[in-house]
């Protein structure tokens, strides 16, 4: 608590730069600021007030909010054989934190992890791939059979939503060699 110069502190003003000042009662020692933007840098400062007036602002506290989890990528089958499917998906780009006055975010190289699940015979989805590449080959499949997949992407904030279910089919096997 700052020096009150003979008059009890009646509250605090929190300034996050772009909104109206937030008034906080003097009993609070911490406060959660709601309605902030994801992946955005903020400069926060605080000042005390009493019946005499407002004190000076504190030093600026720089912080930034986390980004939202990424959207689900689009999944496609780029190669099918009688016993394998090769899946490919679009990569997800992140943006670096921006200040409230900076309207042009730039692309960053944060690591995105992709998770692919395949539907089993019992109707449940099981993880078949977790990694940061943009393609994966599934082997040991049955010929001329449809398989259902879904994909999601994860970042340092968490996992995004699952995609719609994609269905891809293996091909028929070529005929066996003639015996002669």
Automatic annotation (TrEMBL):
Residues of the signal peptide: none
Annotated Fibronectin type-III domain residues: 1-68, 69-174
GO MF, any single term: acid phosphatase activity
Superkingdom of this protein's organism: Eukaryota
InterPro entries, A to Z: E3_ligase_FN3/SPRY, FN3_dom, FN3_sf, Ig-like_fold, PAPs_N
SMART domains given in the database record: FN3
Pfam family, any one: Pur_ac_phosph_N
Protein name: Fibronectin type-III domain-containing protein
Species, as recorded: Adineta steineri
